[in-house]
Amino acid sequence: MIRDGTVFDEDHLPREIVGRNQHMNEVTDALAPIEDGFRAENCFLFGPSGAGKTTVARAAVRELRQEVLDVPHAYVNCWQDYTRNAVLEVLARDLVGAAVPRSSSTSDLADRIGRNFDGPGVVILDEVDQLRETDLLYDLHEFRGLSWIGIANDEIDLLADLDQRVRSRISVGYRVRFDAYGDDTIADILERRARAGLGSGVVSDDVFERIARLTDGDARKGINVLRVAARKATQEGLAGVPVRLVDEAVPAAEREMARKTYSKLNSHQRVIYEVLRDDGPLIQRELYERYQERHDEPVSIRYLRDAHLSKLEHYDLVTTESRSGKKLYDLAVDHPEHHPEPR
Ligand SMILES: Nc1ncnc2c1ncn2[C@@H]1O[C@H](COP(=O)(O)OP(=O)(O)O)[C@@H](O)[C@H]1O
Ligand SMILES: [Mg+2]
Q: Is the shortest distance between the CB of 19 and ligand 1 below 6 Å?
């Protein structure tokens, strides 16, 4: 039944972006100056997981590339590359095609990019709330003609830590809010994805509607549930996907997504996860104390909450509940296969 499994991959960029015309317009407007040879406006896209932020940013850059063939562009996921040095390394490679010697210094990298970058161009800074050294935004500003599309879950002030003089020179021209999708849009996205990956008419509308109802406007989750349901149907030797498989597919898809998220965690997030696995549920102060004991270079409680705990919540690894007026943190899914092998 599965004709093209790649359309269910996380990095698959669909030909059509469903129900986000307004958002697409804002980002393409921001990028429009590039077509005339000028620096674009910086944009900041924010909203919950699975609301199409990364997809819209990538699709806008794809549209731009249809107009300006060789426009320099790069994609950085700041969850993986969270230091100034790491981001500049990606940019040296992808923006100016430099073969960078291993462990080049930050200033070497910046020099190299500054000398060779032939703007205007654009870089997507995905998960930019994980960027630990926001000075990087100043480096980017120094590259003539370079603009960025920053993406995060919450509407944060990215420039907050920059000093006033620098801050006043960098502007964010567009702030674009993404709300979770409505059920109809999720069903529409799933229908197109099913057609591309499984063929037309293999899956009926009540399956898309059922998935939409169970996934709270999160397209990533919806697509994963569809993929798991199609796989289960194939294993059972069925020609279509019956609705009953959807309900079974939800927890399995959640576990797979949780496992993928777990593999992306940095050391702070991993320690939080392990503390909650061993001792949860915990209130924030207890969680912080145990994290501090286990981590060699602990961050402040405020940073832990804003940058790490909130990330784990947005990606459904950690949940909170109120019990007798106290907010308790715990692991969201019980998935023993996450637990690292005992050594
Ligand atoms: N408007 C859309 N049209 C088609 N597919 C979409 C749309 N929005 C999201 N998707 C799909 O849903 C998944 C999650 O979207 P993504 O852009 O990664 O969400 P976010 O970055 O907001 O977490 C991706 O696989 C993407 O292809
Ligand atoms: Mg994203």
A: yes
